[in-house]
Target: DUF3781 domain-containing protein
Amino acid sequence: MELLNNLNKVHTTEMGVGRIKRNIGVEVEDIVKYCVDKIKQDNAVIKRKGKNYYVGVDGIIITVNASSYTIITAHKEK
Model:
């Protein structure tokens, strides 16, 4: 899968860092590494819809732009 082949390009914006941490309730030094580690897990379900990838893993959904590999947001599954 394209996302897994380009994990080295995954990043987020300064605003994204705070939004992601707040939405999923984690306080880690490197939120991008945290998300990449989640995406790499064997139980991660990766789906592409339109311009984004949606990665469901451990009760959270991580949204990644498919062309820029920017983590847009992450939130807890409902």
